[in-house]
């Protein structure tokens, strides 16, 4: 397998300068020292275009009232030299955008805005730039929802992510503030989101849906909850765009009483395992999902750093790389494909305030 580029989104309120790059060699299991490839303001989440050498980043900013200030940016990516070149930037349709994803067809991206609880869609133009938003949807308008159980974190809608199903017909937006997974039909011709008969899926009160990831077969969806530290396994009907809960488990060890918050969820490329990160317990929880009717807990692996906000799995399924935001480093783990368990390898790699990790092939 050839070398990969690891793209690293960061929070720039401290010493970080923008988006960093590192060379990852999956044969050797090694990461090069990260280097800043593009200066950017609060590029906390990244998405790589499925076919073109393009990278998209949110700029997680907001004015004091959280009404504006957020944006999404486009960059061209030189896969041989590992260089990023800024193309353009568009208002994100809300404040504090915290997630961006690409439609499988490659013509659109979508962003989730935490501060105002909105999701927005943008066209990817021929030159790689982003056009003006084709659609902005406010969860408060769609659901007429008020506040959730937590008076601080659930004072109203807070969209935390938006992902497309593998077929590209539907979009799913976990909303931490109203304990719902919003489900939209997506019009690929016009870049429009619309509510449909499936409507939404409701988590347990106070759970706080944060992130979601599809199984490689496209038949199930996993949602990690930030506030109650659980992960839910949902069956997905691609014809109707509907989901139903199959199982849900805690991501923390039994009896653990400390403060922690669920963060990221990723499905192993082989489809056997799902992993979730815990910020506070500072671990990766692993689950066996070969029985499609249940989540079987496999245990917890310390991340070797503080506040594991994000992690990614190498496409071959042999490695997991974790971003520890508060200890300012990356840690690398070998994945045992037979057991799903993780083994820490090598020393931590320093990078300031890492918040999101994405891998893409490096041109030779």
Largest sheet: 5 strands, antiparallel
Overall strand count: 29
Shape: globular
Task: Work out the helicity level.
Answer: under 10%
The class by helix and strand makeup works out as mainly beta
Detailed description of the structure:
With 364 residues, the protein is mainly beta. Helix content is 1%, strand content 52%. The strands form 7 sheets. Strands 1, 2, 3, 4 and 29 form a 5-stranded antiparallel beta sheet that branches. Strands 5-6-7-8 form a 4-stranded antiparallel beta sheet, with no helix packed on it. The longest helix has 5 residues, at 139-143. The model has no long low-confidence stretch (mean pLDDT 94).
Quick structural overview:
The chain is mostly beta strands and 364 residues long.
């Amino acid at each position: 397998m050839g070398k990969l580029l690891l793209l690293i989104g960061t929070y720039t309120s401290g010493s970080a300068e923008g988006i960093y790059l590192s060379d990852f060699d999956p044969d050797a299991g090694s990461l090069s020292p990260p280097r800043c490839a593009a200066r950017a303001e609060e590029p906390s989440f990244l998405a790589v275009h499925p076919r073109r050498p393009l990278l998209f980043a949110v700029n997680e900013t907001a004015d004091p009232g959280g009404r504006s200030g957020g944006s999404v940016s486009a960059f061209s990516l030189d896969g041989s030299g590992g260089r990023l070149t800024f193309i353009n930037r568009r208002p994100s349709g809300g404040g504090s955008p915290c997630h961006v994803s690409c439609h499988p067809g490659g013509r659109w991206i979508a962003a989730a805005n935490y501060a105002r609880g909105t999701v927005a869609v943008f066209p990817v133009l021929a030159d790689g730039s982003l056009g003006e938003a084709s659609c902005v949807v406010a969860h408060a308008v769609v659901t007429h929802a008020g506040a959730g159980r937590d008076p601080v974190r659930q004072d109203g809608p807070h969209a935390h992510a938006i992902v497309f199903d593998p077929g590209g017909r539907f979009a799913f937006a976990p909303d931490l503030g109203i304990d719902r997974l919003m489900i939209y039909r997506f019009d690929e011709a016009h870049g429009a989101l619309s509510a449909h008969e499936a409507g939404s899926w409701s988590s347990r009160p106070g759970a706080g849906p944060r992130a979601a990831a599809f199984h490689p077969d496209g038949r199930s969806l996993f949602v990690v909850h930030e506030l109650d530290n659980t992960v839910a396994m949902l069956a997905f009907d691609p014809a109707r765009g509907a989901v139903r809960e199959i199982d849900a488990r805690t991501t923390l060890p039994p009896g653990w009483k400390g403060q922690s918050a669920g963060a990221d969820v990723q499905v192993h490329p082989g489809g056997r395992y799902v992993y979730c990160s815990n910020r506070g317990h500072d671990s990766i929880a692993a689950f066996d999902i070969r029985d499609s009717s249940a989540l079987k807990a496999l245990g917890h692996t310390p991340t070797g750093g503080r506040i594991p906000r994000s992690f990614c799995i190498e496409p071959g399924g042999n490695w997991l790389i974790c971003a520890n935001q508060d200890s300012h480093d990356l840690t690398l783990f070998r994945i045992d494909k037979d057991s799903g368990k993780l083994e820490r390898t090598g020393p931590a790699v320093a990078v300031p305030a890492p918040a999101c990790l994405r891998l893409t092939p490096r041109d030779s």
